[in-house]
Amino acid sequence: MTANQKTLVKIDKMDRRILEHIQQDGSLTNQELAEKVGLSPSPCLRRVRALEDAGIIIKTVTILDHKKLGLSLTAIILIGMDRHTPERFAAFEEQVAEYPEVQECYLITGQDADYMLKVVVPDMDHYHHFLLNRITRIQGVSGVHSSFALRRVIDSTALPLGYLS
């Protein structure tokens, strides 16, 4: 048994169908979801609640169109830290969690960096301000490398459920 199999919560084919549908459209009513998966509303709601209670469904969100809101620039930032201590990493993570521009933050390996951030801002001027007045002011940041997305080729929040048995 792999380490991943030890942490998995068992779900059946119906649970998987429910998860597939709500990943694509979290605004489905229970009635609509029940119809799509072939259940009556009460058992469908019980299954959704059980998936929530098991921690599989963490939250339901609404995804906004970034361009229509004027948030046209997506930057991927690789960040190096001066010291690799739990305290330094915790302080960095606590600080970037306060920045609404940061959509994702990963502690990484395999690069000349410790963190990778995905940041969304209106334009290059705002990015410049964000970089100089926020990121580089975090204690311990020793290096920053920025790349900019030209186009979103795949933009999905759906998890690949085909691995579930």
What's the topology here?
Layout: H1 3-7, H2 13-24, H3 30-37, H4 41-53, E1 73-81, H5 86-96, E2 102-107, E3 115-121, H6 124-133, E4 141-148
Antiparallel strand pairs: 1-3, 1-4, 2-3
Protein name: AsnC family transcriptional regulator
GO biological process, one term: regulation of DNA-templated transcription
Domain HTH asnC-type: 11-72
Task: Give an overview of the whole structure.
The protein is α+β, with helices and mostly antiparallel strands. The chain has 2 domains: 10-62, Winged helix-like DNA-binding domain superfamily/Winged helix DNA-binding domain (Arc Repressor Mutant, subunit A, Orthogonal Bundle), CATH 1.10.10.10; 73-148, Alpha-Beta Plaits (2-Layer Sandwich). 36% of the residues lie in helices and 18% in strands. Helix 2 packs across helix 3 (30-37) and helix 3 (30-37) packs across helix 4. The mean pLDDT is 94.
Which properties best describe this structure?
165 residues, alpha+beta, Arc Repressor Mutant, subunit A, Alpha-Beta Plaits, 2 domains, four-stranded antiparallel sheet, 6 helices, 18% strand, elongated
CATH C-level of the largest domain = Alpha Beta
Please list the strands of the largest sheet in the order they lie side by side: 2-3-1-4
- Average pLDDT value? 94
Helix content: 25-40%
Decide which structural class fits the backbone.
alpha+beta
Count of separate structural domains: 2
| Largest sheet, strands/sense/barrel | 4 strands, antiparallel
The CATH architecture classification of the largest domain is 2-Layer Sandwich
Please name the fourth-level CATH homologous superfamily of the largest domain.
Lrp/AsnC effector binding domain/regulation of amino acid metabolism (RAM) domain
Distance between the termini: 14 Å
CATH topology of the largest domain: Alpha-Beta Plaits
For the CA atoms, what is the radius of gyration?
A: 20 Å
- What are the segments in which pLDDT stays under 50 over at least 5 consecutive residues? none
Q: Give the assembly state of these chains.
A: single chain
Strand fraction = 15-25%
Secondary-structure element pattern, one letter each: HHHHEHEEHE
